[in-house]
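Researcher: Structure for this, please.
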Amino acid sequence: QVQVVESGGGLVQAGGSLRLSCTVTGLMFDKYAMAWFRQAPGKEREGISSISWGGIKTYYADSVKGRFTISRDNAKNALYLQMDSLKPEDTAMYYCTAFRMPYYIAPSWREDLFGSWGQGTQVTVSS
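Model: Predicted structure, token format:
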């Protein structure tokens, strides 16, 4: 059974930084591309970044490009999201997820491409 656990969220002032982490068990982690999504109150969940199984290829939503950096450590089955220059509009629950198919990544945030969601970690950015 695949388990996904996010951590690292919290309250930060605008302009600050946070680093989110995600650990995955029950999955051959180094064979799957991974992604971060977020959901703000009253809004639909949106994909913000993805990374290929080897970490070579990355994609970012325009809303976070240049401010967020995705990375992974396959030896630790861990995914990270470094968030800099945070804005109040970044306030959301952040989720980690894996693409359903091994060795597959696409510049798409269609949720049917993803499985094995975590419970999320809350990020709140104050102005």
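Researcher: Any notable elements?
Model: The two ends are 40 Å apart (CA to CA). DSSP finds no helices and eleven strands in the chain.
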